[in-house]
Amino acid sequence: MRASHVAEHIEMERDTLRLLCSVLLKPATRVEICGLLDSDKFLEPLQRIVFEEIRALGPVDPKRLLQLLPSRVTNRGFPDFDLQDLLSPRLVSEKGIEKLFQSAFRLMDVDNSGEESAEYPA
What we know:
Elements: H1 3-21, H2 27-36, H3 45-57, H4 62-75, H5 83-87, H6 94-109
Helix pairs in contact: 1-3, 1-6, 3-4
């Protein structure tokens, strides 16, 4: 995968995590999205761990998710994890949430070689 694609892919991962942590997303929807994604889609180790912990927490309330996530990620070996940094900017508009959903769908569509299919062009 070319460096530009890697950077773009990592940004998709980050956007997907922002979506999964959004207070606008219902817990059941979060669980459904997590069920459609494999952790091996995440190239960046910290983001993979964050995803795995979000998935493991299941259908918890978004505010509770944001409370539990930092300690769970720290316990997985990332003591300097800053949830606020991952989620910035925190406020997401309606158009912004659409972009986050698109990133999640694109990430779902990436095959194990890291290449996207033609269905979801960048």
